[in-house]
């Protein structure tokens, strides 16, 4: 299981991969603490300690059963290998088991991840001058799981 020190180290390592960098918007130590305390964290790790990627999702909206993907990142050397897809699929599986119906995220316009999210079934439901807000109905996944 990922501890706070490893999470913060990962955030620092991928910080500059975000535009603008995460640290320009967030205190990374506080954000790592918040994620550890409040999010479902899914990671892809090899050899027990090399983190390829991490996804963190808040699943606390019990009334609408909507979860929010607050963070996802894959180290540069592992991009294009399906790591982000795997992280999102693992997250969806956990959310479906917890009774959630929808997964939402915000992505900055111009971020190349938009195409990945679209391929994974996310649709834009709102936009502003800088961001797209995307969502995916994950109840469809539950139907497929029920067939197995």
Describe the structure.
With 148 residues, the chain is α+β, with helices and mostly antiparallel strands. The protein contains five helices and six strands. The protein has helices at 4-14, 28-38, 83-97, 113-119, 139-147; strands at residues 40-46, 50-61, 66-74, 102-108, 123-127, 131-137. Strands 1-2-3-4-6-5 form a six-stranded mixed beta sheet, with helices on both faces. Strand 5 (123-127) and strand 6 (131-137) form a beta hairpin.
What would you say about this model in short?
This protein is of the alpha+beta class. It has helices at 4-14, 28-38, 83-97, 113-119, 139-147; strands spanning 40-46, 50-61, 66-74, 102-108, 123-127, 131-137.
Output the keywords:
alpha+beta; 5 helices; 148 residues; single chain; 36% helix; 32% strand
* Largest beta-sheet details: 6 strands, mixed
Cα gyration radius (Å): 15 Å
Shape: globular
- The rounded distance between the terminal residues' Cα atoms is 28 Å
Mean pLDDT: 91
Name the beta content range. 25-35%
Q: pLDDT under 50 segments (min length 5)?
A: none
The amount of helix comes to: 25-40%
Q: What's the total count of β strands?
A: 6
- Order of strands in the sheet with the most strands? 1-2-3-4-6-5
Helix/sheet category: alpha+beta
The number of helical elements comes to: 5
> What order do the helices and strands follow?
HHEEEHEHEEH
């Amino acid at each position: 299981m990922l501890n706070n020190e490893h999470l913060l180290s990962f955030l620092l390592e991928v910080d500059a991969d975000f535009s603008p960098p995460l640290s320009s918007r967030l205190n990374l130590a506080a954000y790592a603490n918040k994620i550890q305390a409040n999010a479902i964290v899914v990671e892809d790790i090899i050899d027990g300690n090399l983190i390829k990627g991490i996804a963190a999702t808040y699943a606390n909206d019990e009334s609408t059963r909507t979860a929010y993907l607050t963070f996802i990142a894959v180290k540069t050397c592992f991009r294009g290998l399906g790591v982000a897809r795997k992280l999102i699929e693992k997250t969806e599986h956990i959310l479906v088991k917890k009774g959630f119906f929808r997964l939402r995220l915000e992505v900055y316009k111009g971020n190349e991840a938009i195409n990945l999210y679209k391929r994974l079934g996310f649709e834009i439901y709102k936009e502003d001058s800088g961001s797209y807000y995307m969502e995916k109905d994950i109840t469809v996944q539950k139907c497929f799981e029920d067939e197995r």
